[in-house]
C-alpha cells in the first residue's frame, strides 16, 4: 500500500497533491493518507467521499489524521 504524507503542507497544497495522485490511481487501489493541516483534515475526507471513494479513519490526534483511502469504492 502506498503512503502519502501531506503533513508538511498547509491548505490548499495537500488537496492539490492528492488530486495529482488520484489522476494516476486505479479503482480499488488503496492509499494511507496522512494530513496535518486543520482545514485539510476536515475538507479532504468529505471531498473524497463526494467523489465516491471509501475513506476510513485509522488514527486521529490533535496534530494529524491518518486515513485509509480506497479509490472508486464506497464503504459497504
SSE layout and pairings?
Layout: E1 2-5, H1 13-24, E2 30-35, H2 38-50, E3 54-60, E4 65-70
Parallel strand pairs: 1-2
Antiparallel strand pairs: 2-4, 3-4
Pfam families: TusA
Family: Belongs to the sulfur carrier protein TusA family.
Protein name: Sulfurtransferase TusA family protein
CATH topology: Translation Initiation Factor IF3
| Ends apart, CA distance between termini | 21 Å
Computed over alpha carbons, the radius of gyration is 11 Å
Shape: globular
Describe the strand arrangement of the main beta sheet, using strand numbers. Answer: 1-2-4-3
Number of helices: 2
Mean pLDDT comes to: 93
How large a portion of the residues is in β-strands, by DSSP E?
A: 25-35%
**CATH C-level name:** Alpha Beta
Family: Belongs to the sulfur carrier protein TusA family.
Protein name: Sulfurtransferase TusA family protein
Organism: Aeromonas rivipollensis
Domain UPF0033: 3-62
Describe the structure.
This is Sulfurtransferase TusA family protein. Belongs to the sulfur carrier protein TusA family. Residues 3-62 form the UPF0033 domain. Pfam families: TusA. With 76 residues, this protein is α+β, with helices and mostly antiparallel strands. It has one domain: Translation Initiation Factor IF3, CATH 3.30.110. The protein is 33% helix and 30% strand. The longest helix is centred in the middle third of the chain and has 13 residues, at 38-50. It is globular and about 30 Å long. The model has no long low-confidence stretch (mean pLDDT 93).
Amino acid at each position: 500500500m502506498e503512503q502519502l504524507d501531506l503533513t508538511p503542507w498547509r491548505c490548499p497544497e495537500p488537496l492539490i497533491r492528492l488530486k495529482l495522485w488520484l489522476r494516476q490511481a486505479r479503482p480499488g487501489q488503496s492509499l494511507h493518507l496522512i494530513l496535518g493541516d486543520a482545514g485539510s483534515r476536515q475538507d479532504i475526507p468529505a471531498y473524497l467521499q463526494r467523489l465516491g471513494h471509501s475513506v476510513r479513519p485509522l488514527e486521529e490526534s490533535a496534530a494529524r489524521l491518518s486515513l485509509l483511502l480506497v479509490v472508486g469504492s464506497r464503504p459497504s
